[in-house]
Write a structure and sequence with these properties.
globular, about 700 residues, two-stranded parallel sheet, 26 helices, 22 strands, alpha/beta
């Protein structure tokens, strides 16, 4: 009926879509997935048949999140426009069979190809690359069984011309790196597990026949990201060994992201010494052990730096200003800065300082003045407590960064010092933050709308002012400094959480309501906000932040009860653009009312719920999956029995897999001993982007890959 009414209105107004200029129509068509353009839209009329094949629409084909694409559609797409495609992104298309890759050979003019997350064997890779003589950029996975000796001479010739390579390793190997003799950009993702499925310890030694030496002489960018585990550290050292012998003269970005302890060796020390002597960097990230206690930063030279990450380092604010910012000189180029877990970075020195002591506002002010063009800033996982000095609050200083697009802050940093000093802790905060016996307490009645909260003068708070000054912010993370997810990567589920910072005790509904000022907000993460009493601020966000696509909520309010459930359901009814939802909360009840509210999120694609002692209603889940046709990922780690979880998982797969080729369902008891085995089978795209909790602001340099 709505469609008929709209058509009638168009006729009465004399408006016809086909009367628009070609430029306007091409702009509109650019928002339509390429598979729909070529296989559907172009068959509607002659004009669209011509426009849908315009070079501006066929030059770059993005399939990486086209969850409806299947093997037959890819085959037809390559047959119709294969010769017109110059850039093809199939990253994360885990559901496509490996034979789908054979059709890429039709794209004779390919310059950039991304197959990360796709199933590609050595022989298929060899056959495909042998036909792609113009290829210059490649992204692939290296899985167990990969054999570089199976690559043909034609394939190696193509690889010798590749200048950009992204390689995700699931097994100890050099992959195709030794064949890429013209490398300028090398991105390595190490996802090798320490144990096999059978429980055997794995070795970091390369496979027999993999002793070829990588060619780094033309390298400009080196990036390595390691998943937890000692095998990943052993393998990355083999890649670095060649760099330590001869540092590329044109190297301008050197980045290694390693969790936990990654000790410095003689070879890595020689590499860093060589870098200090011979290169000028624009981007830097090093393991914390390589920076802590060393004078490295004093000797490294920088050109026009655009990215720094000192995540989890003990770097003091004094050293940050003196050795990196250099008194504010030449830092206007810096657009992304990651100081996550850098607990002393806003203090003059760290020797006698406690992590909870007040920050030195002059250091932050120097940082803000020097790096005035920052677009991405991460200050999470630390206690950044402001003093009572007027005008020197962290939020007030950050409000000067008008170009910020993404920001991550600890909960305790947004506390209004004067207000928190006058305001005694509310009753719910006296409840121990544990998973012990439930305590029945009275909850005060708080306003549910923004107008009533305005009457309480929350607009005068420093955080409210900060949100008002960052109107173009797209990503915001407010995470408790002591928060840790119940589901880490390669370990059993955490059973207890640390209590929140004392300064964070007053952060609750009014601060959440302040976020609703961010009209262009696309991604929001809130974790360990102890003073959430009703969740009323969530409703304001749902109403005002209409561009919100990703929402992650964890441990809000009391731990023994989901006090914000009613507000969350009200919020979801307004989130028409929401695509990803992650909820982590003990005792969460995923019942009929919740899923009925969630069904209003018509664009939802991925759902992840992590809840110790949480419950679910199988019928409600099935009804939700039937109503929300776009959902292709459903991960629930709850307190239900293994039998209940398996039965529901099988029912979902059996009912919806045929219609949704990309469907990925994991429903499993959170505290089950086999959880880590289940996690390892989750596609890396979902695992890295939503299932595992982490701070993602300034995690990597902007535009690291396409």
């Amino acid at each position: 009926q709505e469609v008929v009414n709209e058509e009638s209105e168009e006729e009465s107004n004399g408006v016809n879509l086909m009367e628009f200029s070609d430029e306007i129509l091409l702009h509109i068509l650019s928002y339509v997935p390429c598979t729909d353009l070529v296989l559907n839209v172009r068959r509607t009329c002659r004009k669209l048949a011509t426009l849908c094949l315009d070079k501006s629409l066929t030059h770059t084909v993005l399939l990486q999140k086209d969850y409806k694409v299947n093997k037959d559609k890819v085959k037809q797409l390559m047959r119709d426009i294969g010769k017109e495609i110059y850039q093809l992104n199939m990253a994360g298309c885990y559901w496509l069979p490996s034979s789908t890759i054979d059709h890429v050979t039709r794209c004779k003019n390919l310059v950039k190809l991304n197959l990360s997350g796709c199933h590609v064997t050595s022989l298929r890779l060899s056959k495909m690359l042998s036909t792609l003589q113009h290829l210059r950029s490649l992204a692939i996975d290296v899985n167990p069984g990969f054999d570089a000796s199976q690559l043909s001479s034609e394939c190696k010739a193509t690889l010798s011309r590749v200048s950009e390579l992204k390689q995700t390793l699931y097994t100890p190997s050099y992959g195709v790196v030794p064949c890429c003799t013209s490398l300028e950009k090398l991105l390595l993702y190490f996802e090798i597990l320490d144990r096999s499925r059978e429980g055997f310890m794995l070795s970091g030694q390369l496979m027999v026949g993999e002793s070829n030496v990588p060619h780094y002489q033309n390298l400009r960018i080196f990036y390595a990201r390691l998943a937890p585990g000692y095998v990943n550290q052993e393998v990355v050292r083999l890649y670095l060994a060649v760099l330590s012998d001869r540092t590329p003269e044109n190297l301008h970005a050197f980045l290694i992201s390693a969790p936990g302890s990654f000790a410095e060796t003689g070879a890595t020390k020689n590499l860093l010494d060589s870098m200090a002597r011979n290169v000028r960097l624009d981007a830097l990230q090093l393991p914390k052990a390589w920076i802590n206690g060393s004078g490295l930063l004093q000797h490294l030279k920088f050109n026009n730096p655009f990215y720094f990450s000192f995540s989890r380092c003990t770097l003091s604010g004094g050293h940050l200003i003196q050795r990196v910012i250099n008194g504010g000189k030449d830092l206007k180029s810096l657009t992304s800065l990651n100081l996550s877990g850098c607990v002393h970075c806003l203090a003059p020195e760290s020797l006698f300082r406690k992590a909870e002591d007040d920050i030195d506002s002059s250091i932050l002010e120097s940082l803000v003045v020097s790096c005035c063009n920052l677009r991405h800033l991460n200050l999470s996982a630390a206690h950044h407590h402001s003093s009572e000095s007027i005008g020197n609050h962290l939020c007030q200083l950050l409000s000067r960064l008008k170009h910020l697009l993404s920001l991550a802050l600890p909960v305790c940093s947004i506390t209004d010092v004067a207000a928190s000093a006058e305001k005694p802790p509310t009753t719910p905060n006296l409840v121990p933050q544990t998973f012990g016996r439930k305590v029945r307490i009275g909850i005060q009645t708080y306003p549910r709308n923004l107008g009533d909260q305005a009457n309480q003068k929350i607009e005068s708070s420093v955080f409210w002012a900060l949100m008002g000054s960052l109107r173009f912010l797209e990503t915001l993370e407010i995470i408790g400094s002591s928060f840790s997810s119940a589901m880490p990567r390669n370990e059993p589920a955490i059973r207890n959480s640390l209590p929140p910072c004392v300064r964070a005790q007053s952060v609750g509904d009014s601060e959440v309501a302040a976020i609703s000022q961010l009209t262009y907000l696309q991604s929001l993460t809130l974790a360990q906000l102890p003073n959430i009493l009703t969740g009323s601020g969530l409703v304001n966000i749902g109403l005002q932040c209409q561009h919100l696509r990703t929402l992650s909520l964890a441990n809000l309010g009391m731990m023994g009860k989901v006090v914000y459930m009613s507000a969350l359901m009200d919020m979801l009814k307004h989130c028409k653009c929401l695509r990803d939802l992650r909820l982590e909360q003990p005792y969460f009840c995923a019942g009929a009312q919740f899923f009925q509210a969630l069904s209003h999120c018509s664009s939802l694609q991925r759902l992840c719920i992590v809840s110790r002692s949480g419950t679910l209603q199988s019928d409600a889940v099935m009804s939700f999956m039937a109503n929300c046709l776009e959902v292709i990922m459903c991960h629930m780690f709850m307190g239900e029995s293994l039998t209940v979880c398996k039965n529901l998982q099988q029912s979902i797969v059996r009912s919806f897999q045929a219609e949704r080729p990309a469907l990925n369902v994991v429903i499993f008891p959170l505290l089950h001993e086999d959880l880590t085995e289940v996690i390892r089978d989750v596609p890396m795209r979902h695992l890295d982007e939503i299932t595992l909790f982490k701070s993602r602001v300034a995690e990597e340099p902007p535009n690291l890959w396409w």
